[in-house]
Amino acid sequence: MTLLTEVLVLQGLFTLTKANLELLWPFDSKAYAREVNINNSTQDDSAGCDMTFTNIKPSGFPVKSTAFDGSSHYDIRIEGVAVDDFSFSFWLNTAKQHGALFHYKPDDPSTDLQDIKLWLVTKQIHFARVLQTKTETEICGSSVSEGNWYYISYGIDKGNGKMWMYMDTSQVYDKDESYKDNVIFPVPGTLRVGGMFDNSSENYEGSITCIGFHSASVPSSSLTKTPCTLSSRSTFTPSCSSNIRGNYGGSKGRFLLYSGSINDLEEMFSVNTCGVVACGSTCLKHGGCLYIQYDKLKPGCTRCYLFKVGTRNAISTNGLFYQLSFFV
What we know:
Number of domains: 2
Largest sheet: 8 strands, antiparallel
Order of helices and strands: EEEEEEEEEEEEEEHEEEHEEE
Organism: Mytilus galloprovincialis (Mediterranean mussel)
CATH architecture of the largest domain: Sandwich
Protein name: Laminin G domain-containing protein
Distance between the termini: 25 Å
Shape: globular
Oligomer: single chain
Structural class: mainly beta
Keywords: Signal
Number of helices: 2
Strand content: 35-45%
């Protein structure tokens, strides 16, 4: 993936007072991976670069959906929400019988819940909740056929640990199976769509659109679908160029890929971040930081290095360097 294909979206809350839809990523050619309604001021304006789109779309959807070719995935952020019960929903149209649908991983590695995964094996949806002490896995009782659109919603009841799944309007899984009770859904975290952080399943091939995150169980298809089919929603085209650009907590900055000498760079400190945009944000929050280093080839969250001009201790093998060029 190129510099700007990391779809790192810092989410704001929806202003919906009578529904349980918290966050929405349309994943289509009109709004890319940005929320439909009110956006947080920390929104990364490069989110969505290098996405490809297709005219294969669900009935009633006015714009193109996102195409996955088996070699790409997109990362989106879940932030700013506090939930008990929760669920994800999305529309999919698969071109193959196998592949990763999504993988959620919280930023904090010490939480009880470590991972949530959905993936396809021989047309059936497998899902897993990975905890500190055990892994709970199940298989959906129904199959998806290649070339057809399906509305999928999957969630967990916090109180009793029950996992459930709907396919279109039919409940295809609803069991307790001695799943652990009172497991908190940890935020913030990153939702990888179309791939796995641990590469435990091959990347997805097909189309996905209209991904929703809900703070209650069993969302209806219309709840998520309605915002994605509104003709009046505003168009957002990301700023796609050869640099990172973002608004970080009120401070704006532009980081350019740096290929010059690192002989005069002194490391200030390093910290784990989930993406190069978050690494740039960290730099802007600390006076004197002029360069960052981040390895985008490593899956998931990794080390972000901050530098100032000084005592020549930069290590070239820790990732690519970016230079804070100017504020925008």
